[in-house]
Design goal:
By secondary structure, the protein is an all-beta fold. Helices cover 2% and strands 43% of the residues.
Length: 430
């Protein structure tokens, strides 16, 4: 594994300035009666030396015929700890953060601002303490022969259930397989074959809803393409028939769940994102074919953060952020051929609003079935404002897409399909 630190951090800082906001000073706020809207945090990404201070502010973004202004009522925390602590650094009620006297490990710290009047009340900024970028270390992996003789035959997607176990959708078995993080098999969900709900034919994606239900996407014509199981694997219901009509799906590329209980499903063939209620009732589609900001160009995955904001990567880039109602907010992860991002093959997110993208460069798109070429892959981590936090390479002999999942502790699980083995690699931030 090769780590890429300053190169990608500096590239991200061009698009998302590290510390143009003054370190200290004050800002005038507006009366609480002023209409609220969306908020942002300033700065969104900053690098500090141990013991250094930084002023953070929550800012209401400009609205129609109304200027931006500083939020007056904000609750501040560091990594979710009100006021912070000696290890992570402390932040006062005015948003002034002081870095700890010694750089923590990992060096990435999350400034958390809560603005109750905002449409997106939870805001996160990233502080990197010290001179380097965060580094991810391979801390473990489990694998099986690539010939399909083990528990895995064709792993396609991965998720983490409420117990911290891994769910892997396997196209070869046409089942969702459950494993401990260490790779111990714990059984499966759903059945292969058949044309009735609860059975899979061309299984693709898997995810876990906030209430612990297991949601899997299928490509086969017959039963609805999205099926829901309880945490123990018992079939509950299904929705989203094959097609191009309202609520229908051609090629699912992932599902995600909002805090309010809605389900978002990306459909790469129909160039849309479908929105459903928790029971599968269709709400609306975001169908915007094109390459302009806010358009969908083969949407390839979807995640939702704690505010209900929706992140959708286009396969050829960029990744885009929308409100829960589909209003375009921002784009990041811009294409950068030949050695930068030219394809996004997976997305996942963590509790701090960070977005992880598995990406490939031009060389990684070369496919030759007679003599496969290496397919180098890289993981890029952005914060909630679209600022690049860090980037690191995987091994060079990849053959498949690297689907990912993050657990509650920030541990990153990455599916791999190498020349002679397939399995799960486990990374931790150091």
């Amino acid at each position: 594994m090769r780590l890429s630190l300053n190169r990608w951090l500096l590239a991200g800082s061009v698009a998302c300035v590290l510390a143009l906001w003054p370190r200290g000073g004050s800002a005038q706020t507006v009366e609480t009666g002023t209409p609220a809207g969306r908020a942002g945090i300033r700065p969104a990404l900053v690098q500090l030396a141990p013991g250094e201070t930084q002023q953070f502010r929550a800012v209401f973004e400009p609205q129609w015929l109304h200027e931006a202004y500083v939020a007056g009522e904000v609750s501040w925390a560091v990594n979710g700890i009100p006021g912070g602590n000696d290890t992570l650094g402390a932040i006062d009620g005015e948003g002034v953060y002081r870095a700890p006297n010694e750089a923590p490990r990992p060096c990435e710290v999350h400034i958390c601002a809560t603005v109750d009047r905002a449409e997106n009340p939870r805001l996160w900024a990233t502080v990197l303490i010290g001179s380097g970028a965060p580094a991810y270390e391979l801390v473990g992996q489990w694998q099986e022969p690539a010939d399909g003789s083990g528990q895995l035959k064709d792993p396609l997607d991965i998720a983490v259930d409420r117990s911290g176990n891994l769910l892997i959708s396997d196209g070869g078995h046409s089942k969702v397989l459950r494993f401990t993080p260490e790779g111990e098999a714990l059984g499966g969900v759903g059945e292969p074959g058949g044309n009735t709900p609860g059975h899979f034919g061309e299984l693709r994606n898997v995810d876990v809803s906030p209430d612990g239900n297991i949601v899997a996407c299928d490509m086969r014509t017959g039963p609805p393409r999205i099926q829901v199981f309880d945490p123990d694997g018992a079939f509950l219901h299904a929705f989203a028939q094959k097609g191009i009509g309202p609520g229908q799906i051609m090629q699912p590329q992932g599902v995600a769940f909002s805090p309010a209980g809605r389900i978002y499903a990306a459909d790469s063939d129909n160039m849309q994102v479908n929105v459903y209620e928790n029971d599968g009732a269709f709400v609306e589609s975001w169908r915007r074919n094109g390459v302009r900001p806010g358009d969908l160009n083969e949407p390839y995955g979807v995640i939702v953060d704690a505010n209900g904001d929706v992140f959708v990567p286009n396969y050829y880039g960029p990744c885009q952020k929308f409100t829960a109602n589909g209003e375009f907010v921002l784009a990041f992860g811009q294409p950068d051929p030949p050695d930068g991002l030219v394809a996004i093959t997976s997305i996942c997110g963590d509790q701090w609003g960070n977005v992880y993208l598995a990406v490939r460069d031009t060389a990684g798109l070369v496919q030759n079935s007679a003599k496969p070429e290496p397919r180098p892959a890289r993981i890029m981590k952005f914060n909630n404002s679209g600022c690049l936090v860090t980037s690191f390479f995987l091994w060079e002999d990849e053959r498949g897409e690297n689907k990912m999942a993050v657990d509650a502790n920030g541990r990153l699980y990455v599916l791999f399909k190498r020349v002679d083995a397939l399995g799960v690699a486990i990374f931790e931030e150091r």
